[in-house]
Amino acid sequence: MENCKKMGIRTGFLILMVLIALIGCGQVQKVPLSRCAQLRGIPGPADLAVEQRSAFGGDRLIIASQARRGSDPEGEYLEQGRMLFVPLSGSNRNDVLEFSFSGRDEYPFHPEGMDVVDSGGSHFLIVANHARKDQHAIEVFRIERTSLNFITRYRHEFFEYPVDVVALGSEEFYVLNRRSASGLQNIAMSSVFLGSGSLVYVNGNQFFRVLSNLKDPSSISLSPDQSKIWINVAGSSSIRIYQRGSGPDLQPVASVGLPSTPGRGAFLDSSRYLVTGIPSGWDLSRHESNPANLASSQVFSLATSNGSLALAYQDQGEEISGAYGIAVRSNQLFLGPRYDDYVLACTYP
Q1: pLDDT category, 193, cuts 50, 70, 90?
Q2: What gap in Å lies between CA 205 and CA 227, rounded to an integer?
Q3: Domains parsed from the chain with CATH numbers
Q4: DSSP-assigned letters across all residues of 50-115
Q5: What is the pLDDT of residues 142-153, one digit of tens each?
Q6: CA nearest neighbour of 161 among 139, 123, 133, 141
Q7: pLDDT > 70? residue 245
Q8: Most-buried pick from 126, 130, 228, 280 (CB within 10 A)?
Q9: What is the largest distance, in Å, between two alpha-carbon atoms of the chain?
Q10: For residues 231 and 174, is the Cβ–Cβ distance under 8 A?
Q11: How much is the average pLDDT of 193-203?
């Protein structure tokens, strides 16, 4: 019987079908959060993370900021990206401040996904950098009071289009690729209803491609006990959960269907996983072209014990359009739109 169970895990996913009442056509029904405020002056908050007990004093929100509207004739971003932080207590509470770089060269910086990890008594930032349209890197920094001390830069053929990073330590982490670097491969995989996204495990100078054929994955999270990784897959509107083994070994555990396209996710605690949702990709595309075109936002709360799903937040775009990034701290929830210049900070639950 035990062997049968193991074979079942290895040969397929346990599908947890989640049914949610549909709101239907017309105006999106608002499901509000309480005491929300916009933290402005943050262009394109691609990813958010909370650093606890920071060198600045108390906890702070760290933001990978990249203005995304507009590009040059070659398709490159017009502006350099920045790393920002917001103290969550003290006299500078809710002020938007910018990290300076220490020891970093002039290599272009356009941040996407990132993670903050405590290792050996120091705090480290690991961030995916789309330096150029077809040139990507993973950069590692030691986090100081108001600066990021450059440690190293990883370049590898497996880093094809990295969109998120989750760290076990300063030299051990996973890198999630949204797609292959090969346009022909992307077309070929799409034609058979598969994706070309992948997951890479890095340990020092060792690189392993541990998952492939992911259909437009958007983010990766590590469970609080570090035993599982959760991957939001936009192309199939689902969350895939894997059990971590030794080194690069992963075994599929479950797949949870979602009623809309997932953005990023964050664990509120060991029992609840929060994930942003994009109800309409068309509306989000129109919002990218013109800020006046609003795009609805959703946040779902998933019970890790049984896969039950609840709608925690929904807005038709007036409060936040196209919420994508997410971070949590105690009873605070932070949401970042992909194209606008603020972070929405709310009380939750």
Answers
A1: low
A2: 23
A3: 2-17+45-282 (2.120.10.30)
A4: EESS-TTSS-EEEEEE---S-B-TTS-BSS--EEEEEESSSTTTT--EEPEEES--S----EEEEE
A5: 999 999 999 999
A6: 133
A7: yes
A8: 126
A9: 61
A10: no
A11: 89
Number of neighbours of residue 75 by Cβ within 10 angstroms: 9
What 3-state class would DSSP assign to 259? coil
Residue 134 makes CB contacts below 8 A (sequence gap 6+) with 181
Residue 46: per-residue pLDDT: 82
pTM, whole model, 2 decimals?
A: 0.89
Strand order in the sheet with 122-132: 100-102, 147-154, 135-143, 122-132, 111-119
pLDDT single digits (tens) 283-317: 999 999 999 999 999 999 999 999 999 999 999 99
**What does the block give as tokens for 87?**
């103290």
How does 120-147 read in b/e, with b if 16+ C-beta sit within 10 Å?
eeebbbbbbbbbeeeebbbbbbbbbeeb
Give the residue among 205, 210, 204 at the shortest CA–CA distance from 229: 210
Residue 322, SS3 per DSSP: coil
Please give, one letter per residue, the 3-state secondary structure of 170-224.
CCEEEEEECCCCCHHHHHHHHHCCCCCEEEEEEECCEEEEEEEEECCEEEEEECC
**How far are the Cα atoms of 85, 102, 284 from residue 79, in angstroms, in the given order?**
19, 20, 21
CB 314 within 8 A of CB 28: yes
Q: Is 13 helix (H, G, I), strand (E, B) or coil?
A: coil
Handedness of CA 287, 27, 31, 33 (dihedral sign): positive
Place of tokens 């990021």: 148
Separation between Cα atoms, residue 241 and residue 211, nearest integer Å? 12
Tens digits of residue pLDDT in 221-233: 999 999 999 999 9
